[in-house]
Specification:
Layout (H helix, E strand, L loop, with lengths): L10 H8 L4 E8 L2 H4 L8 E5 L5 H8 L4 E13 L2 E8 L4 E5 L2 H11 L19 H13 L4 E4 L13 E3 L8 E7 L2 E8 L2 E5 L7 E3 H15 L4 H7 L3 H7 L8 H23 L3 H18 L4 H4 L5 H19 L5 H18 L5
Antiparallel strand pairs: 1-3, 2-5, 3-4, 3-5, 6-10, 7-8, 7-11, 8-9, 9-10
Helix pairs in contact: 8-10, 9-10, 9-12, 10-12, 10-13
């Protein structure tokens, strides 16, 4: 039966596997000079695809300004009765880059105007990978790169009948995904940008059920506020807003903030998808309530929003703001809805300072 994943996607590896020879994977990480000197960097990552023969030149150009990560495969094959080692990217032409996506795109355009960063299919913007996801992925690559494989199916495919879990111990701590058995091994299936990645050998790690954790925290808060203005406000919510409200709880630890942001990310993704299918009422209801709830629960200054502690929730806020702007600029949105969204945007700006921070 054909596997659901690739052993390797590089042309060199593919040819070698047909000959039955062994290949070994290893990561390659290049740091730019400013990163080595300790200059503050934007921590999120994005990625691009190029021709496999062009990878070394692209990496050499980008590493002057950014941190670059390429997962490579060393393939052994015979040439003139000698075994020769050849290194190539595990996924043909895949290059991860850390930094501001606009600056990366600008740097690429100077020399490689035909190359573009990969876009998120739902938001139609550059796919951004949080550093909290890349760091464990790179850590596993350094320890045992053979544990990593790229899957062909989208990440949502593995959510059917499986529970979303968050790893709470070991080198994979902080990652969210599904536990799947592949090739008689226990794998954690995660999403890295638009890529679906399986990490094998997951046996000793501990997990928490993400949805149950959020529900329990929300239930405890609801019980403590079972009377008064908070409960009265909850009773006035629409069914959709009530579902979004169930994703909220007061974060105390870093783990709480990451978990909360991950739950809210799923709502911004849903808003982008329904907007794509022209269900603009639902999309606006989601993003405007997300912004209202974020502003009401976190009355912070611009500096506090941009701080390290709020980075995950700030990303959710930015996604919601950009979706609101898309609704206002989309000609297909009905005029009366566009006017309502504009009024609520002005209200959010005046009360919470959104869009100006």
């Amino acid at each position: 039966m054909q596997l659901d994943s690739s052993e390797s996607l590089s042309a060199a590896t593919k040819g070698t596997l047909q000959c039955g020879l062994e290949s070994v994977s290893c990561p390659k990480v290049e740091a730019c000079p400013s990163a080595k000197l300790g200059v503050q960097q934007i921590t999120s990552w994005c990625y691009l695809f190029t021709h496999s023969r062009r990878v070394p030149a692209v990496v050499e150009h980008l590493r002057r300004h950014f941190r670059v990560f390429v997962h490579t495969t060393i393939v052994y094959h015979k040439e003139k009765r000698k075994v020769v080692a050849k290194e190539s990217p595990s996924v043909s032409g895949l290059v991860f880059v850390q930094g501001d996506s606009r600056q990366i795109a600008e740097e690429l355009s100077k020399v490689y105007s035909f190359l573009h960063l990969v876009n998120d299919y739902s938001t139609r913007r550059v796919a951004v990978i949080p550093d909290a996801v890349m760091r464990p992925f790179m850590r596993v690559s350094e320890m045992d790169p053979t544990r990593i494989r790229i899957l062909h199916n989208p990440f949502a495919h593995y959510g059917q009948g499986n529970t979303l879990l968050r790893v709470t111990s070991g080198p994979l701590a902080g990652l969210e995904g599904y536990l799947i058995r592949l090739n008689r091994d226990r794998n954690l299936v995660i999403q890295v940008g638009q890529l679906t990645v399986a990490i094998g050998g997951v046996h000793k790690e501990t997990f928490v059920h993400v949805e149950e954790f959020v529900r329990e925290r929300h239930r405890l808060e609801t019980q403590s506020a079972s009377s008064g203005p908070v409960q009265g406000k909850l009773l006035q919510l629409s069914p959709l807003q009530a579902q979004i409200e169930e994703s909220f709880f007061v974060p105390v630890t870093r783990f709480d903030r990451v978990t909360l942001a991950a739950g809210l990310d799923r709502w911004t993704e849903r808003a982008a998808i329904v907007a794509h299918y022209r269900r603009y009422d639902e999309a606006s209801d989601i993003v405007l309530y997300l912004l209202e709830a974020l502003g009401g629960r976190f009355p912070l200054t611009a500096e506090e929003w941009c701080g390290k502690e709020m980075s995950d929730l700030y990303h959710v806020r930015q996604d919601s703001e950009q979706l609101v702007d898309r609704l206002l600029s989309e000609p297909a949105v009905p005029k009366n809805l566009r006017e309502q969204v504009a009024v609520q945007k002005d209200s959010l700006c005046a009360r919470y300072g959104f869009w100006h921070q």
